TrEMBL record:
Domain of life: Bacteria
Keywords from the named record: Membrane, Transmembrane, Transmembrane helix
Biased composition annotated in UniProt, kind: Basic residues: 402-414
Any Pfam family matching the protein: MFS_1
Protein name, as recorded: MFS transporter
Organism: Streptomyces anulatus (Streptomyces chrysomallus)
Region (Disordered): 402-433
Coiled coil residues, start to end: none
Length: 433
């Protein structure tokens, strides 16, 4: 089931052209820095809790609450951006999030676990929605759809670095100083990165297209069957990632090699980065929906070798394969979401996509934790999540295809010349049915 062959008519895309476009490097770099707390805060909170006298269970609960609150608030913050602009949401959210992270060490002496829980939950709710915001900015920053295609792949592929660099940075700061310093640095990076994005001209100027009474008009509703099925499928993608993280810990314990708990997820993230860089440099024929389904099939196939319970080195190499296709899955899921979402609610739709993957990841982590003592079941869970995603996508393919739905309230996007544009760049696959 091969990916459709790349077209040969258009010249190869370069990432230098993407990053050389006005504001592109600033927005991508600022978003990555501003999102480092996503990988740093849970670890810093856990370390602070344990060094403050709390048990690992309490620290783990606080860490989980921060991540869960951040994920659950994404759609609300996305909708606020659609209505009020990006800077109006990013800056207050970053200020509140950073202030609460810095204030967290005061919870021990003055408020105990109750105050710590409140600070962690509100801090998670206030985490700035930089990922959804950046995806909404690319069309205005990069009018060339081929450059947008490359930027989206680069953006998606580099996300894994957040969860490699972030925990390592926290561990280094906590070891050299203490977890309080790690929390302060986490807060500072989030504020600096968010400010770099929110104060940029594209972010300050950005406004979503709006329609009156869009909630009352069925054509403006986001929760259509096609959108719902797409997001349900993405929970399976997140489930696979969450299960893989726990499986890596099980591998580390089974083989008595603690480093495997970090090396295996790092290998998957490295595969995601490499896969994204390769994918983004090519232009591909066919629709984003077809590419999404094919990439999910390869994503599923990449997990199957784990059923053989491979040795540590083989397991580390094996997870790089599904990691390489993860970027393609997520990138095309964003494009499909953009095509399905009604005008004026694109950022909110992106936020629901993020929440869907996050919810699946939490479920995969929870179930894998219960099955960690059963090697075969634990190794099979990532493939089970990917199989679920593929099954839902195959069942929904007609609804997600260019002819399977209408552009509900979305204005058709025509090229400047007025000619019809082929959908080889994985951008807006339903604009020209």
């Amino acid at each position: 089931m091969p990916l459709t062959a790349p077209t040969t008519l258009a010249p190869r895309i370069t990432y230098g052209a993407v990053l050389g476009s006005p504001y592109a490097a600033r927005l991508l770099g600022g978003t990555l820095i501003g999102r480092l707390p996503n990988g740093m805060a849970p670890v810093a909170i856990l370390l602070w809790a344990t060094t403050s006298g709390s048990s690992i269970a309490v620290g783990g609960l606080l860490s989980a609450l921060y991540g869960l609150a951040s994920a659950l608030a994404q759609p609300v913050k996305g909708r606020l951006m659609d209505r009020h602009g990006q800077s109006a949401v990013h800056l207050p959210a970053a200020l509140l999030n950073s202030a609460l992270l810095v204030a967290l060490p005061l919870a021990g002496p003055y408020g105990g676990p109750g105050l710590a829980t409140v600070l962690v939950v509100v801090g998670g709710l206030a985490a700035p929605p930089l990922e959804a915001g950046l995806r909404a900015l690319w069309p205005s920053v990069l009018p060339d759809p081929r450059l947008r295609h490359a930027a989206l792949a680069l953006d998606t592929g580099t996300q894994g670095l957040l969860y490699i660099v972030g925990p390592l940075l926290v561990a280094a700061l906590a070891s050299a100083y203490n977890p309080t310093v790690a929390l302060a640095v986490t807060a500072a990076l989030g504020l600096v990165g968010t400010a770099a994005v929110a104060l940029s001209p594209p972010s300050r100027r950005w406004r979503s297209e709006r329609f009156e009474d869009q909630d009352a008009d069925p054509s403006r509703r986001l929760a259509t069957p096609a959108v719902t099925l797409l997001f349900v499928s993405l929970t399976g993608i997140g489930f696979a990632i969450g299960a893989m993280n726990v499986w890596s810990v099980s591998m580390a314990e089974h083989h008595e090699q603690d480093m495997l708990a970090g090396i295996i997820p790092a290998a998957a993230s490295a595969g995601s980065l490499v896969g994204g860089l390769i994918y983004g440099r090519r232009t591909w024929s066919g629709t984003a929906t077809r590419r999404l389904i094919v990439a999910t099939a390869f994503f599923l196939g990449g997990w199957l070798p784990l059923l053989a319970l491979p040795a540590p080195y083989a397991a580390t190499a094996a997870v790089a394969v599904p990691g390489a296709f993860l970027t393609i899955v997520v990138a095309c899921a964003y494009v499909t979401t953009d095509a399905l979402a009604p005008t004026g609610r694109t950022t909110e739709a992106y936020a629901w996509l993020i929440l869907s993957i996050g919810a699946g990841q939490a479920a995969g982590t929870a179930l894998a934790g219960r099955l960690a003592e059963q090697p075969l079941a634990s190794a099979a869970l990532p493939a089970a999540g990917a199989a679920f995603a593929l099954a839902v996508l195959l069942a929904a393919r007609r609804r997600l295809s260019p002819t399977g739905h209408r552009q509900r309230g979305r204005r058709r996007r025509l090229p400047v010349s007025g000619t019809r544009r082929p959908d080889h760049e994985c951008q807006h696959p339903t604009a020209f049915p």
